Structure formats: C-alpha cells, structure tokens
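Supplementary Text 2. Reproducibility record for the structural model of the 87-residue chain.

All settings were left at their defaults, and a single model was retained for analysis rather than an ensemble. We include the record here because the model underlies the residue-level annotations in Supplementary Table 4.
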Amino acid sequence: MSTASTASAASLPKDCLEIYHNTKKATEAVNLRKGPGRNYTSLGILSKGTRFRVNCTTDFYWYYGKVETGANKGRKGWVSIAYLKNT
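Retained model, structure tokens:
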C-alpha cells in the first residue's frame, strides 16, 4: 500500500489508514454514511454508477472518500466496499 500526497493525514477521520487514492464506481444504490458502519446516519444515496474517490479505510470493509459525480457530488463520507468496484 502506498500513500498519496493529495490529502493530508490531518483531514482524514481518526484511525483511518490513508491508502492510494483511486476512483471507484457504485455497483448499485448505496448509502453515503457519516461513519464506517450501517448504524451511522445516511448522508445521501449514491446511485448506481456514481464515482467515489477513496481516501482511506479503517478496516477494509468501509472506505472514506469524496463523491465525484451525481446528486451528492462533493460530499465526503463512508461507503461499504461491497458496493464499490474499480472504474
């Protein structure tokens, strides 16, 4: 795993392991969440095909990043890895 210099560690959530920044695509409609888990509040829905730029992870089940396309473009939050694929 390598780190990228485009995001500072200070801007990432606590205990979030910075990973190589890449863009993934939602495989179906999925919640953008406030934290890494289904128990966290939904910040919006990413529709199928929405692009999501990955910044870090805490457990390799959830990615933290920024929405690049769609209705929630520009929002930051957490998405389950199960609903993302490489673009």
